[in-house]
User: What shape does this take?
Amino acid sequence: MGLWIAVHLLAATFWVGGMYFAHRCLRPAAELHLPPPQRLVLWRGVLRRFFSRVWMAIAALLISGYMMVFIYLGGFADLGLHVNLMQVLGWVMIGLYLYIYFGPYRPFKAALDDDDFAAAAEQLARIRKIVGINLALGLITMLLGASGRYWAFL
Ligand code: HEM
Assistant: This one.
């Protein structure tokens, strides 16, 4: 259990912490200090690197989460409420990430390739909104995961 929970916690920290940094620190600073074309090109580089690692974080969260469920917690039948809530919120977060990746992220990159900065900014605003929602869900999920064993019955 120790190994899987360590992998799980690292993946969650990376994904949620990365969203916090991008949404609450990098975005306001870039808006303040960079003109739109440079800012949008910066975001293309940031998102390309971050998203490629989010795929790995999602794989690590799912594998480690379900390893703990099946090997140590007796499968779906005996799960505590916090693990069930975590699963639901986790799948919603994954769905929203897939929506970003296969939705606005593609036209964002295509608009930048065409130097259409207005269209790219529009898609980036959509990405930002959904990342904001996923950040809130991620923080709630981490709180549930970390505190649940003290209040939910296994
Ligand atoms: C989607 C499927 C998921 C499954 C099956 C799952 C499963 C689990 C299980 C079984 C535990 C151990 C609970 C306990 O011992 O009381 C756990 C802990 C935890 N989970 Fe998840 N989880 C999932 C998604 C997520 C997501 C998306 C996040 C955050 C982004 C997350 C964050 C955490 C945290 C922070 C802990 C506590 C780690 C610790 O105690 O150090 N989990 N999870």
Summary: The first helix runs from residue 2 to 33.
